[in-house]
Amino acid sequence: MLKPLIALTTALSIFVCALASTASAATVERMDLDELVQRSDAVVVAQVADVQTELDERGRVMSIVELRVRESLKGPATQTIKIRQIGGAHGNIVTRVPGMPSFQVADQGVLFLSGDVELRPAAVTGLAQGYFRVALGPDNATEFAIPQINSMNLVVRERTQPTPGTSQLRSVSAADLHLQVHELDAFKAQIRALVDSQAREEQ
User: CA-to-CA distance for 32 and 38, rounded, in angstroms?
Assistant: First the structure.
């Protein structure tokens, strides 16, 4: 029962960090594969079918990305999913948020998503940490998942002593997950194994 609230709180905290960042980099909590799977309500391999933009009540550009799902690795089996995120171009108005993933029609990727993907637009977990673009390798046959992180100041939260219950943020380098290209079939197998393991722990 608490999972939707936890997911929403996590998404909001990441979003606030992004907006509070400098013009050149977003400050985001670093995630490895286990954390991405744990904090995501859905993980899919999908293709971008459409990208639309609109203005929110504050005059910021919001992008609505429609995904055509190739394969669901976690979460409900659904054919299409929408993402709504700040950023993009709408007429002469442009809004940019460092660290936010960008999408073009026909892009394919592995996406870690937070939110009720069946009922409302989702968010990419951990900003660009939750998006791996899928592309063919040199043999034009093998697919690879390619990290898309950029302009991000990654941090971890550490407990401070001697005061209990308090913590501070420390800047760190990207997780190994985001420093290498992954063969897609092996990457999907890793994700499925984590999904199964985490499901058993929750039983």
Answer: 10
Q: What is the pTM of this model?
A: 0.84
Decide if 178 contacts 147 (C-beta within 8 A).
Answer: yes
Please tell me the distance from the alpha carbon of residue 14 to that of residue 8, in angstroms, as a whole number: 10
**CB distance 25 to 98 below 8 Å:** yes
Contact 128, 81 (CB under 8 A): no
Distance separating alpha carbons of residues 112 and 27, to the nearest angstrom: 19
pLDDT band at 23 (very low <50, low <70, confident <90, very high): very low
Query: Which residue in 87, 132, 97 sits closest to 17, CA to CA?
Result: 97
Question: At a CB cut-off of 8 Å and minimum separation 6, what does 38 contact?
Answer: 194, 198
CB 100 within 8 A of CB 18: yes
Residue-number span of the structural domain to which 105 is assigned: 3-202
Pull the structure tokens for residue 159: 């407990």
CATH code at position 153? 2.40.50.120
Q: Is 194 left (phi over 0), alpha (psi -120 to 50) or beta?
A: alpha
Per the prediction, the chain carries an average pLDDT of 87
Nearest by Cα to 198 from 72, 74, 110, 30: 74
**Number of structural domains in the chain:** 1
At a CB cut-off of 8 Å and minimum separation 6, what does 150 contact?
A: 99, 128
